[in-house]
Amino acid sequence: MRRLLAMLLAGGMACAADGRYPDVATTDRDGIWIFRGSAQGDYAGGTFHFIGASVEPWHICVADLNGDALPDLVSSNRLGPSVSVFLNTGDAFEGPFDYFGGGEPYAAAAGDFDSDGDLDLAVANPEASGALVLLENQGGGTFAQMAVLTPGNATYAVECADVDANGTTDLVVVNDDSEDLVVLLGNGAGAFVESGRYATERSPKSLALGRFNGDALPDVAVINYDSATVSSYVNTGGGTFEYVASYAVGVLPRHAVARDFDGDGTDDLVVACGRGSEEVAVLFGLGGGRFAPAEAYYTGPRPNAVAVADADADGRLDIFAANWSLDAEQFACVSLLGNAGGRQFAKRLDFKPAAGFPKLTFVAAGYFTASLFIRGDANGDGRVNLSDAIRSLYYVFGLSQVACADAVDANDDGAADIADPIYVLEYLFGSGPPPAPPFPRPGADPTPDNLTCR
Fold it and tell me: Which domains does the chain have, with CATH numbers?
């Protein structure tokens, strides 16, 4: 059957993917705002989610907390003091569901600490001697306290990764008062042991994980607030790190994200340059944990955090910056810097909440809106049958449109092409496997790709 179809349809071309436009979440003094992405790219209006009066959300963690393939949100509310969980229903968020996260929750990270398949939370608290509160996922995105760790003095930030490549989740934190980077190795049962402590420069406030030296192990970049630098540490294996170099960035930098902006296989850095600045700094990775000097791009007053996503679905990663202006409320906004290629960025637009007090201390980006579909059901009638193979053929050859290109992708390879109707026919006639999830019931796409549903 495969040979016959290939002969009949020789010369067919793959259909271009529909664009996917990322959504954006940002903080407010009393809650968080969600801005939906679209082809227009204006991020107009936004939807407000109230948490509490003057709780001051400082950080937003994006993770699938209830296993439904939809990204949920965790807000760290430093004056709550609490962490608020918002569960994604596909077209909206339920919540907040509030949990105690320590005396002054500044940031949270998600990872499976006890190997049960659910993502747990680690919450960093700089208050007093510093604490790291671990919250165990009880299933369905509900939490209970697991443990409280004290990795240093004034713990401002935490990230989760398997730093020693043994299959369990580890923790990496920075401590402001003790001025150090600490690595905690997990045993897969909810317990952690310190494997290394590394001196930083003055007042480390955040960190970013990335691939800086060409191997598969996560490396670390530390943002040093008072020193106005970002420092690189490469992973040497077994949960140990080695300091490489520091680079000047802005005035009082607060936050960074590591992503590969130029497609050379090495992660680059974008840094929010913070108070006293109106710019973000981009440092392109050179390999070996080293970076080119920072290149500055104008955003707006006091950029406090950055996020990275392909805002216009052109295949290049763009930058969102949360500008927290204390002096003039009207200047508080999110700036979008478009990736123009050739290692260049240009400011594209500013957007802000339609109302409220825009204390924009953080920004996160992701594909929050999900369409539910059945893989292989190209015509959207709720069943996978011969008519779907025919509809897929028409779509592949540009003879008709479909509401959901993701549904056409029966073999889940991220492309809607001639292989998909062949896959459906082989399944229907008993010689091939069924489509990948979501199948046979509707669901969200668990596999990241550039296909969408309208």
Answer: 23-366 (2.130.10.10), 373-453 (1.10.1330.10)
